[in-house]
């Protein structure tokens, strides 16, 4: 996953350098325009509570909806800036994702953790079109593939379902015995690729795949090890999600021997992705007629 991120950013940097040279020629302000859009996506998560803790480990059953709004400004033949606000949910469940017969996954099946996390994201991204448009919006190309990258901030709040079916906020519980609770507001780096298709002079439809590199390993409330002493967890809910929720299989972990054992993998941060469609409406620029004397 780290190599994918590095190679993608390198590609975007090269494309941006090429674009800056191409955009050195005059691009009339009369050809610049804005558009507003809505998106409907499927949202997936990659972390500790997946079939395997890596990007290829995708479970369609855990996909949840994500909706968003955006406004885009075209600045140059290939370059646009986009601001977006989106809201969606990610989920994970060891009972459904982990294969108890897989030696590498058996401890996660025994862990028996579940979570859901509603994420609100605000992002600013640069969009680089692979096909340029030096004309106005009416004469834009019919089909345009593109890549994008930027920076964003998210607010998230992982929750879990207890044995009685109650939904419980996990962050305040400090389920791994943390000295202080992890932050619910985090920076992310969004990047990805997509394509737009011109329906008519005012509307585009598109498809886009985006990834979010985060700087937290707690989108799922799982990162390091079980506490060494169950009684150090501060509440009944903390003891349940931090210790008692395990299946207690003697060939992996049980409540008798899991203390201090592996609960997650802290060497990689959590990620999430979106894949979906968008509809964009172009706000036709006002044409100012020259004044004649």
TrEMBL record:
SUPFAM superfamilies: OMPA-like (SSF56925). It comes from the Bacteria. The keyword Signal applies. It holds the Pfam family DUF6089. The keyword Signal applies. Residues 1-24 form the signal peptide. Residues 27-222 form the DUF6089 domain. InterPro entries: DUF6089, OMP/PagP_B-barrel. Keywords: Signal. This is DUF6089 domain-containing protein.
């Amino acid at each position: 996953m780290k190599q994918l991120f590095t190679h993608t950013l390198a590609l975007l940097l090269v494309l941006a350098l090429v674009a800056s040279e191409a955009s050195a020629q005059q691009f009339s302000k009369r050809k610049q325009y804005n558009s507003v859009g809505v998106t409907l996506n499927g949202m997936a998560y990659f972390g500790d509570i997946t079939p395997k803790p890596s990007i290829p480990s995708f479970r369609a059953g855990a996909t949840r909806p994500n909706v968003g709004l955006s406004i885009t400004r075209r600045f140059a033949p290939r370059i646009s800036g986009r601001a977006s606000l989106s809201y969606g949910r990610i989920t994970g469940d060891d009972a459904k994702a982990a294969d108890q017969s897989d030696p590498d996954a058996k401890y996660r099946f025994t862990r028996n953790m579940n979570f859901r996390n509603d994420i609100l994201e605000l992002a600013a991204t640069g969009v680089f079109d692979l096909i340029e448009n030096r004309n106005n919006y009416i004469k834009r190309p019919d089909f345009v593939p593109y890549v994008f990258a930027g920076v964003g901030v998210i607010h998230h709040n992982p929750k879990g379902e207890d044995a009685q079916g109650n939904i419980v906020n996990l962050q305040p519980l400090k389920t791994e015995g943390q000295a202080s609770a992890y932050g619910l507001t985090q920076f992310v780096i969004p990047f990805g690729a997509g394509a737009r298709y011109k329906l008519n002079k005012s509307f585009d439809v598109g498809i886009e795949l985006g990834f979010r590199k985060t700087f937290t390993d707690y989108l799922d409330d799982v990162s390091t090890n079980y506490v060494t002493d169950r009684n150090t967890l501060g509440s009944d809910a903390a003891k349940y999600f931090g210790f008692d929720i395990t299946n207690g299989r003697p060939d992996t972990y049980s409540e008798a021997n899991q203390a201090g054992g592996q609960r997650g993998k802290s060497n990689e941060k959590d990620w999430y992705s979106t894949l979906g469609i968008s509809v964009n409406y172009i706000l036709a620029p006002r044409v100012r007629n020259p004044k004649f004397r």
